[in-house]
Automatic annotation (TrEMBL):
PANTHER family recorded: NADH DEHYDROGENASE [UBIQUINONE] 1 BETA SUBCOMPLEX SUBUNIT 10, NADH-UBIQUINONE OXIDOREDUCTASE PDSW SUBUNIT
Localization per record: Mitochondrion inner membrane
Keywords: Electron transport, Membrane, Mitochondrion, Mitochondrion inner membrane, Respiratory chain, Transport
Name of the protein in question: NADH dehydrogenase [ubiquinone] 1 beta subcomplex subunit 10
């Protein structure tokens, strides 16, 4: 549809909103309160917020790069040090999540290699297959048979029993 430049043919109807005419010399109280609010409340709050944002922009910290300090292992905690027990448990849970992700990443790399190589996967993906075998064996040795409700104490006991069995096997072999 071409634009019609003849404004006289399509006149806009007059608006029914009356134009406010100032009759008094007294200022409008709404305008006065808006100005007071702007200078008393809004401007300081905006200034403080912008200052905080500038400070945060200088020191950006990313939550997904959070680094926790290493805490003593459960075997290093004193007998009644419940805070140490709690921290060791939290450290163990983080370590378990990291180890689980390592296994998943290695498994994904092997899957990608199999997909990429096709029928030659047995020759060309031997390194990835060996790495996956090592990583899963280490994960199974540390966390296997603990179940979903495993914790640092049961993991420590499992490691202790495994070490005792290895010593017993060495003593019998000697």
């Amino acid at each position: 549809m071409p634009e019609d430049k003849d404004w006289e043919a399509y006149k806009v109807p007059p608006t029914r909103t009356p134009v406010s005419e100032r009759i008094t010399s007294v200022p409008n109280p709404i305008t006065f309160f808006q100005t007071v609010f702007n200078y008393v409340v809004d401007t300081p709050v905006t200034f403080v917020r912008e200052w905080i944002e500038r400070q945060q922009a200088k020191n950006k910290s990313y939550y997904y790069h959070q680094k926790f300090r290493r805490v003593p292992d459960l075997s290093e905690c004193l007998e009644d040090d419940y805070l140490c027990f709690f921290e060791a448990e939290a450290q163990w849970r983080r370590d378990r999540l990291v180890d689980t992700e390592i296994v998943e990443i290695v498994r994904e790399r092997l899957g990608a290699c199999k997909q990429r190589e096709g029928p030659n996967e047995f020759q060309n993906c031997a390194k990835e297959r060996e790495l996956l075998a090592q990583v899963t064996k280490a994960y199974q040795d540390r966390y296997g048979d603990l179940g979903v409700h495993g914790n640092a104490r049961t993991c420590l006991m499992k490691q202790k029993h495994r070490m005792m069995e290895e010593r017993k096997a060495q003593a019998e072999a000697s």
